[in-house]
Amino acid sequence: MPGLLQTAEYTRAVVRAYDPFLEEEAAEARVAARRARAHIFENPRKPRYWAEDAHRTRSEDRHLA
Q1: Backbone φ, ψ for residue 22 (5° rounding)
Q2: Which of 2, 29, 50, 64 is most buried, by CB atoms within 10 Å?
Q3: What's the pLDDT at 14?
Q4: Could you count the other beta carbons within 10 Å of the beta carbon of residue 1?
């Protein structure tokens, strides 16, 4: 999931998965920093953001052949 689209809870899980021994204060600082960048979407002149799900299963790939 792109960082700009992550919820605080998801970001927290990603930070914890990357470094499970990180102190709580440092982890929350990383979460806050990532979430602060997402504030650009609150601007009236916000950028357009397009995301595409490119995940396919092997069974779906067989139907393409």
Answers
A1: -65, 135
A2: 29
A3: 93
A4: 10
